[in-house]
Amino acid sequence: METLQDEADAGVPYAIEALDKASTEYNEFYWWAFSELATERQIGMAVGAIPCSAIHAFCDEHRITGYERYVFHHCMRELDIVQRKHIKKKSDSAAKAK
Fold it and tell me: Where does the pLDDT of residue 71 fall: very low under 50, low under 70, confident under 90, or very high at 90 and above?
Protein backbone atom coordinates (compact mmCIF):
# COMPACT_ATOMS: atom_id res chain seq x y z
CA MET A 1 0.00 0.00 0.00
CA GLU A 2 1.30 3.44 -0.88
CA THR A 3 1.68 5.98 1.88
CA LEU A 4 -0.50 9.07 2.01
CA GLN A 5 2.56 11.15 1.19
CA ASP A 6 3.17 9.11 -1.99
CA GLU A 7 -0.44 9.56 -3.01
CA ALA A 8 -0.40 13.29 -2.24
CA ASP A 9 2.76 13.62 -4.33
CA ALA A 10 0.91 11.85 -7.15
CA GLY A 11 -1.99 14.32 -6.91
CA VAL A 12 -4.60 11.97 -5.42
CA PRO A 13 -7.48 14.21 -4.25
CA TYR A 14 -8.17 12.52 -0.89
CA ALA A 15 -4.50 12.71 0.07
CA ILE A 16 -4.38 16.38 -0.83
CA GLU A 17 -7.53 16.94 1.27
CA ALA A 18 -5.89 15.17 4.21
CA LEU A 19 -2.77 17.24 3.73
CA ASP A 20 -4.82 20.43 3.97
CA LYS A 21 -6.11 19.31 7.37
CA ALA A 22 -2.62 19.04 8.84
CA SER A 23 -0.91 22.17 10.10
CA THR A 24 1.36 23.54 7.38
CA GLU A 25 4.05 24.39 9.92
CA TYR A 26 4.30 20.78 11.07
CA ASN A 27 3.52 19.17 7.72
CA GLU A 28 6.56 16.89 7.34
CA PHE A 29 6.45 15.78 10.95
CA TYR A 30 2.71 15.08 10.74
CA TRP A 31 3.09 12.98 7.58
CA TRP A 32 5.92 11.03 9.11
CA ALA A 33 3.94 10.55 12.34
CA PHE A 34 0.85 9.46 10.42
CA SER A 35 2.87 6.93 8.43
CA GLU A 36 4.29 5.53 11.66
CA LEU A 37 0.94 5.43 13.42
CA ALA A 38 -0.78 3.76 10.46
CA THR A 39 1.28 0.65 11.21
CA GLU A 40 -0.68 0.32 14.48
CA ARG A 41 -4.00 -0.38 12.72
CA GLN A 42 -5.76 -3.65 13.28
CA ILE A 43 -6.65 -5.33 10.03
CA GLY A 44 -9.78 -7.48 9.84
CA MET A 45 -12.71 -7.40 7.46
CA ALA A 46 -11.88 -3.74 6.93
CA VAL A 47 -9.03 -1.39 7.77
CA GLY A 48 -9.40 -0.31 11.37
CA ALA A 49 -8.79 3.08 12.91
CA ILE A 50 -5.46 3.98 14.45
CA PRO A 51 -5.92 3.22 18.16
CA CYS A 52 -6.06 6.23 20.50
CA SER A 53 -3.56 4.41 22.72
CA ALA A 54 -1.04 4.45 19.84
CA ILE A 55 -1.52 8.19 19.34
CA HIS A 56 -1.11 8.83 23.08
CA ALA A 57 2.01 6.65 23.24
CA PHE A 58 3.48 8.50 20.25
CA CYS A 59 2.80 11.84 21.97
CA ASP A 60 4.44 10.59 25.17
CA GLU A 61 7.48 9.30 23.29
CA HIS A 62 7.94 12.58 21.41
CA ARG A 63 7.06 14.82 24.38
CA ILE A 64 4.03 16.35 22.71
CA THR A 65 1.98 18.00 25.43
CA GLY A 66 -0.75 20.54 26.09
CA TYR A 67 -2.52 22.21 23.22
CA GLU A 68 0.00 20.83 20.72
CA ARG A 69 -1.01 17.31 21.81
CA TYR A 70 -4.69 18.14 21.27
CA VAL A 71 -3.97 19.49 17.77
CA PHE A 72 -1.74 16.51 16.93
CA HIS A 73 -4.39 14.01 18.05
CA HIS A 74 -7.08 15.84 16.06
CA CYS A 75 -4.93 15.92 12.91
CA MET A 76 -4.06 12.23 13.17
CA ARG A 77 -7.77 11.42 13.55
CA GLU A 78 -8.70 13.56 10.55
CA LEU A 79 -5.98 12.03 8.38
CA ASP A 80 -7.07 8.57 9.49
CA ILE A 81 -10.73 9.22 8.66
CA VAL A 82 -9.94 10.57 5.21
CA GLN A 83 -7.66 7.64 4.40
CA ARG A 84 -10.16 5.02 5.60
CA LYS A 85 -12.95 6.65 3.55
CA HIS A 86 -10.73 6.48 0.47
CA ILE A 87 -9.83 2.83 1.12
CA LYS A 88 -13.52 1.94 1.55
CA LYS A 89 -14.48 3.80 -1.62
CA LYS A 90 -11.72 2.02 -3.54
CA SER A 91 -12.82 -1.35 -2.12
CA ASP A 92 -16.49 -0.70 -2.95
CA SER A 93 -15.56 0.25 -6.53
CA ALA A 94 -13.50 -2.91 -6.93
CA ALA A 95 -16.37 -5.03 -5.60
CA LYS A 96 -18.84 -3.44 -8.04
CA ALA A 97 -16.47 -4.07 -10.95
CA LYS A 98 -16.57 -7.84 -10.36
Answer: confident
